[in-house]
């Protein structure tokens, strides 16, 4: 697949998504980066911004099997993974698969469940397998998790463990829509073109098949990343481990994620090479959620985004 064909496919995906999602251009593009890298995403924003709607729309457009888990404080790991149940007719145990066995999983309000339940996703996200009663079961190769999260200040939420956050390639922030976008949304809500209604009626057409998705990913893999740029990425990530404001920096998984995300970002810009600007464009959503500030830095009002931006400015840019 050429870059022009790649761009045509991406435009068709974006066009279908925009039939439902109004605005949120950055969120849509970061979501495409996640899909093209065969990774997972955490979407964060206050209620009512369309986090769940974005994930459901992407699943519909990509044509994969879709399941949703509504995370609650009383949700148990077996409710996600499934369990073996004794079948009286066959006189044997049989597996009742949980919603984890799907291609596209929406983990809705993941931070409303305690860490024990959140950890049920760790093996599935990293290895695409699920272990139930000491037996491993394979998940689809395109298994993707889009988890939504309300801000941690919201009542009744639990912080995500560091190991859990590290499994998400990016954390996608969703902010308030622009005035014109909100006006358009309000007008559409009075008609049959309301976003939820369009999705509910099944009017969003699947654009891709699994084979098409593999072709898109193969095209991204052909985008050139220079050795100097790889060194630049490594230096940026390593600086997060020594900065005086940061208690815990990003690990090697963050380094790999930043390289891959920058390559996908370049492909979306219709370029066959990665530039330092691509790295800076994806650095915040890829790295920020992996950082843990020192308590004294938090008391001083330091933000991880500001620290990361400073590191990006301090590290010499390759020429």
Provide a descriptive summary of the structure in words.
It is a single chain. By secondary structure, this protein is of the alpha/beta class. It has two domains: 3-207, Rossmann fold, CATH 3.40.50; 223-314, Helicase, Ruva Protein, domain 3 (Orthogonal Bundle). The chain is 46% helix and 15% strand. It contains 15 helices and eleven strands. The strands form four sheets. It has a five-stranded parallel beta sheet. Strand 3 and strand 4 (92-97) form a beta hairpin. Helix 2 (25-36) packs across helix 12 and helix 12 (252-268) packs across helix 13. The longest helix has 17 residues, at 252-268. It is globular and about 70 Å long.
Q: What is the CATH H-level superfamily of the largest domain?
A: P-loop containing nucleotide triphosphate hydrolases
Structural class: alpha/beta
CATH class of the largest domain: Alpha Beta
CATH topology value of the largest domain = Rossmann fold
Strand order of the largest sheet: 2-5-8-1-9
Summarize the structure.
This protein has helices at 3-17, 25-36, 51-62, 77-81, 115-118, 122-127, 162-166, 179-188, 195-200, 210-221, 227-242, 252-268, 276-287, 295-299, 304-314, and strands at residues 41-44, 66-70, 82-87, 92-97, 104-108, 129-132, 135-138, 144-149, 170-173, 246-248, 292-293. With 319 residues, it is α/β, with parallel strands linked by helices.
